[in-house]
Amino acid sequence: MKFLSAIIFITVLSINTHFAQEDEGIQFFQGTWKEVLAEAKAQNKLVFVDVSATWCKPCKMMEKMTFTKKEVGEYFNKNFINYKIVTDQDKIGNAVADKFKVKGMPTYLFIDGDENLRYFAELGYVEAEELIQAGENALNPKKQLKIKKKK
């Protein structure tokens, strides 16, 4: 009986640890493209868009090794509305990738609530520090792309 209790305890502990680690990383917005843009406008934040594909090995590495890191999650969850586009599974995602001329995977876009591209990072697989640096660049007005005002 004690052996069975010990196995159950270890199993529950490992499951809880697994879910706690997932919660530490980037939390991606679940909703439509229009909804994420509206949320960005409401919160006055940029949308961090991870553009990926199911066949992309560096994309899968980012999901497992970089996006799950605590420091990445803390930075991106605080400063951006995070959104994931998988181009070969989603027509809207493919249209967004086409609109912003995404050429390789993974690519990271930083877009305002009016759907203006503010910063573009075609980085491929990167470690936490380099992704956070891209986020800092995206928030720096001197490094952002200039938006032409409509007359």
- How many domains? 1
Please tally the helical runs, counting DSSP H or I stretches of 4 or more residues. Answer: 6
> Looking across the biggest beta sheet, what order are the strands in?
2-1-3-4
| Beta-strand content estimate | 15-25%
What does the overall shape look like? globular
Total beta strands: 4
Tell me which oligomeric state these chains represent: single chain
For this structure, what is the CATH class? Alpha Beta
Q: What is the string of helix and strand elements?
A: HHEHHEHEEH
Chain-averaged pLDDT: 86
Task: Give the N-to-C terminal Cα separation.
Answer: 77 Å
> What class would the helix/strand composition place it in?
alpha+beta
- CATH-defined architecture: 3-Layer(aba) Sandwich
Our Rg estimate from Cα atoms comes to: 18 Å
Question: Which fold name is given in CATH as the topology?
Answer: Glutaredoxin
The CATH H-level homologous superfamily:
Glutaredoxin
List low-pLDDT spans.
11-21
Largest sheet: 4 strands, mixed
Summarize the amount of helix as a percent range: 40-55%
Written account of the structure:
The chain has 151 residues and is an alpha+beta fold. The protein is 50% helix and 16% strand. It has six helices and four strands, in the order H-H-E-H-H-E-H-E-E-H. The protein has helices at residues 2-24, 33-43, 57-66, 70-79, 91-99, 128-139, and strands at residues 46-52, 80-86, 107-111, 117-121. A hairpin with a 5-residue loop joins strand 3 and strand 4 (117-121). The chain is globular. The relative contact order is 0.16. Mean pLDDT is 86; it is low at 11-21.
